[in-house]
Specification:
By secondary structure, the chain is α+β, with helices and mostly antiparallel strands. It has eleven helices and 21 strands. Strands 1, 2, 8, 9, 10, 11, 19 and 20 form an eight-stranded mixed sheet that branches. Strands 6-5-14-15-16-13-17 form a seven-stranded mixed sheet. A three-stranded antiparallel sheet has the order 3-7-4. Strand 1 (10-19), helix 1 (23-34) and strand 2 form a beta-alpha-beta unit. The radius of gyration is 22 Å and the shape is globular.
Length: 413
């Protein structure tokens, strides 16, 4: 849409329009609101409640919470903790990482439903008069003036809204409508797997330290949700029809065989409606920005669920973007494309490193299991399992990541 398009029923002018109320969007909105930047965050749904959102909060994100003075309250939100990541290759137990060896305020991974994480940021952001979070408001079309993006059109509860913005930031996920409209080129890294997502009831007082299980032709991850087990059953890409063809009873029997702790309540999976398909993608934009538009989080780089790092990379992107741009935005300075490109320059290295590791895990570990190959743990994993120092190194890579971000953006309070 060009700048001369007809005006919708409502118009709004802000310094920054953030599209998408996921971890990247809500964290960036909080940071910009904290810096006194006139910011609106658009979330197309009426709330944050969604079944299929990553819910592993890593130490790097909790360090950011500490730097913002939010950690004490954040840890009051119900969650579960895990510090040692262990797996089963057939009958062989291995320890992949030991987060308790980390020198960080929270040496563990917190499992927290993402809607609780997002609600927390939303509630904490209410105190910033420059920040507005608009729910049930979906961005549908970019507004351009020549080569520059100058805002967007959104559909809200009361009709169409025209939002003029000095900067529009796409945080609308791996299916981003904004990056599609902008014509930004995607590099598909490839993911040979999909995931079946379901939950199974948990008997009171039971526990199991095994995080990942691999058996011949199968892999599954189980997450302890206190009241239930959240399960991720890994299948070959586009293999859902083959799984369903074997029948639900066969599927439930396989799950119970892999994880006997689930056997008592496996009947909670009553039909295929209780099993949801998550299509796995690994990709990244070749360029994250155009004049007036920046993509971060999954809109810039879709991650595999391997390592559960998606939420935390999105938060790191948001912190980096605020560090690099908030002062200029607060001062009313016009951002150049070179200014926006600094965010990509800062965040592309950790994106490439993590995606490369995910590809190696897919190719060397997961594919071996799904193909029915020998389930002997790879040499590197056997070495890590035997060496506590190496477990600390893998914990740092997983939990902190390469080039961690720290809050340096200003606070207007």
């Amino acid at each position: 849409m060009d700048a001369s398009a007809a005006n919708p029923s409502v118009s709004l002018k802000v310094t920054c329009c953030v599209v998408g109320g996921g971890p990247a969007g809500m964290m960036l909105g909080y940071l910009l609101g904290r810096a006194g930047v006139s910011t609106v965050v658009l979330e197309k749904h009426a709330d944050f409640f969604r079944d299929f959102r990553g819910d592993t909060v890593h130490p790097s994100t909790m360090k950011v919470m500490q730097e913002l003075g939010l950690l004490e309250d954040f840890l009051k939100v119900p969650h579960q903790r895990i510090s040692k990541l262990e797996g089963l290759f057939g009958a062989t137990a291995v320890r992949i990482a030991d987060l308790s060896r980390l020198d960080t305020p929270c040496p563990f991974i917190a499992f927290m439903p993402q809607w609780d994480f997002l609600n927390f940021l939303d509630e904490k952001g209410w105190r910033f008069p420059s920040l507005s979070v608009r729910k049930s408001t979906e961005a549908v079309e970019l507004i351009r003036d020549g080569d520059s993006v100058t805002g967007l059109i959104a559909n809200g509860p009361k009709g169409r809204v025209r939002i003029a913005a000095d900067l529009t930031i796409a945080c609308d996920g791996r299916h981003s409508i904004l990056r599609t409209q902008a014509g930004l080129q995607i590099e598909d890294i490839g993911a040979p797997i999909d995931v079946l997502w379901f939950r199974v009831g948990k008997a009171q007082g039971t526990s199991d330290g095994v995080f990942a299980r691999l058996s011949t032709g199968q892999m599954m991850v189980t997450l302890d949700r206190d009241q239930y087990w959240q399960c991720a059953y890994v299948i070959a890409k586009n293999g859902i029809d083959q799984v369903k063809a074997r029948g639900l009873d066969h599927f439930r029997a396989n799950v119970a065989e892999m994880a006997p702790i689930l056997r008592e309540h496996i009947g909670d999976v009553r039909s295929w409606d209780d099993v949801k398909l998550l299509s796995v993608k690994i990709d990244r934009l070749r360029r994250w920005a155009l004049p007036g538009l920046l993509c971060i989080g999954d809109a810039a780089h879709a991650m595999s669920p391997v390592g559960g790092v998606g939420v935390n990379l999105a938060v790191q992107d948001a912190v980096a973007a605020a560090n690099l741009l908030a002062d200029q935005l607060a001062a009313g300075e016009r951002l150049t494309l070179a200014d926006l490109d600094r965010v990509q320059q800062r965040r592309m290295f950790p994106t490439r490193v993590i995606q490369a590791i995910q590809v190696q895990v897919q190719n060397r570990v997961i594919n071996r299991a799904l193909s029915g190959a020998d389930l002997t743990p790879p040499l590197l994993i056997r070495l890590i399992s035997r060496c506590p120092v190496l477990q600390g190194m893998t914990a740092r890579l997983l939990a902190i990541g390469p080039r961690p971000e720290h809050v340096h953006s200003r606070s207007a309070a």
